[in-house]
Amino acid sequence: MYSVILTELGISVFDDEKLEKSFPFSNPVKEYLLVKNKESKLNELINYLASIQRGVSVSDDALLAILKKNNIDSQIMEDSELERIQASKPQIIVDSGFASNPQDALGKLREFALGLSSSKVTEVSESPDLHIIQAINSLDEIDKIANALSSRLREWYGLHFPELDNVIDSINGYAQIVMAGKRESLTKQVFEDAGFPESKVEMLSLISTKSRGGDISDVNLAIVQSIAKQILDFHDLRKKLEEHVESEMQTIAPNLSAILGTAVGARILGRAGSLKRLASLPASTIQVLGAEKALFRSLKTGSQPPKHGLLFQHAMVHAAPRWQRGKIARAIAAKAVIAARVDVYGDGLNKTLLEKLNVRVDEIGKKYENPTEKDIRRPESFRRDGGNFRDNSRRRDDRGGRRDDRGGRRDDRGGRRDDRGGRRDDRGGRRDDRGGRRDDRGGRRDDRGGRRDDRGGRRDDRGGRRDDRGGRRDDRGGRRDDRPSSNKNKKRKQFGRR
């Protein structure tokens, strides 16, 4: 049986390790990719194999599909044969006449690898879904910049016309009024050209004559008007980007646009990275795309996981009651996965997906029309101990303490209270109601740190012990009394005996 081997530099036909015919590639990278994509015709090879009228074994699945399409009796090689060809590929290239020696073959294979990498980068860069991702990201960035400039514009022009900020909410309308100049030059025609209704035009005309704002210089007004012009330019650019995203999404991902809408679909497509990767994600991942921080926080703390991420911007989820949003988001995510797979591997718009989604949303609305007790009550806070959730088996009583297995009641300070009202600590002593602690020797320690012993004396904070005669004994064994001493004795104490 003849063997047809596809290499990076051409196609060779062998008969028991003897070369019969070789077909080199004039442009190795381009023609090799055409064979891999099953788009190459290979007329010379087909005519040669048709002339020998024998079955052939093929080393590549794509090449096998091309031969079978042209009615050539062919089959794939065994795994052992494929491994042998892969291990001895430089020698096969030399035997086929594509290279002069093994070193030359390795050099040409290196050039082929570099060219193949460059073509792959070019192919990925030309992917239309990546351009959609850049467009939707640019749209979001324009919104951020326009909002920041609008805030600055309102503060700056508000020094001259402060009442205008409370009346006009539209960024575009406010910028158009600023472009008209100072408030003295604002007429009804200016307000009408900005697109305001008649009732608001009358209000703006009235407050412009009674404004309490200060005057603005021509230099400052020119800068403010330049900011307003930038905002109007951003508004026009945003319209163009919206139209571009909508048209591209309808062309590249029509089913995804039908399920999610063009704006939400483009944002989820951008978060996934590409349309092909979005088609490989599970529905549960698409449901929480955009809520990664909340998801990982719930995994770490044990709190409630998020029910939706970017899907909250979907009209069905946003308009639904709170207790239905999670179920509707899951249904939309499930249909979005199927829609993405149809866009990648299928052809055309499938209207059945949207119809089934509407039916499912109606079922959720009827079945969960009213919230359940679980939806009404406050979410429980879970505690993670040692990596596992567990309930606290200790029971707290009405007094705020916690009873343990020994029958005692432990309070918040960790001690254990007995039935006599005292609190036993871990050292075995029992604390009474006066705050002191009785130890095993019968003495009682007071709050000042001293201990009353059996002899009736009390040791104070200075380390001495007061006896019954009223004196205080120090550490050297002497007794200091409470009688006042003379000046002579004070000097002896201060300077020593002379």
UniProtKB/TrEMBL annotation:
<dbReference type="Pfam" id="PF01798">
    <property type="entry name" value="Nop"/>
</dbReference>
<keyword id="KW-0687">Ribonucleoprotein</keyword>
<dbReference type="InterPro" id="IPR045056">
    <property type="entry name" value="Nop56/Nop58"/>
</dbReference>
<dbReference type="InterPro" id="IPR012976">
    <property type="entry name" value="NOSIC"/>
</dbReference>
<dbReference type="GO" id="GO:0030515">
    <property type="term" value="F:snoRNA binding"/>
</dbReference>
<protein>
    <submittedName>
        <fullName>Pre-mRNA processing ribonucleoprotein, binding domain protein</fullName>
    </submittedName>
</protein>
<comment type="similarity">
    <text>Belongs to the NOP5/NOP56 family.</text>
</comment>
<feature type="domain" description="Nop">
    <location>
        <begin position="252"/>
        <end position="366"/>
    </location>
</feature>
<dbReference type="GO" id="GO:0031428">
    <property type="term" value="C:box C/D methylation guide snoRNP complex"/>
</dbReference>
<feature type="region of interest" description="Disordered">
    <location>
        <begin position="372"/>
        <end position="498"/>
    </location>
</feature>
<feature type="compositionally biased region" description="Basic residues">
    <location>
        <begin position="488"/>
        <end position="498"/>
    </location>
</feature>
<feature type="compositionally biased region" description="Basic and acidic residues">
    <location>
        <begin position="372"/>
        <end position="485"/>
    </location>
</feature>
<dbReference type="InterPro" id="IPR002687">
    <property type="entry name" value="Nop_dom"/>
</dbReference>
<dbReference type="InterPro" id="IPR036070">
    <property type="entry name" value="Nop_dom_sf"/>
</dbReference>
<dbReference type="InterPro" id="IPR042239">
    <property type="entry name" value="Nop_C"/>
</dbReference>
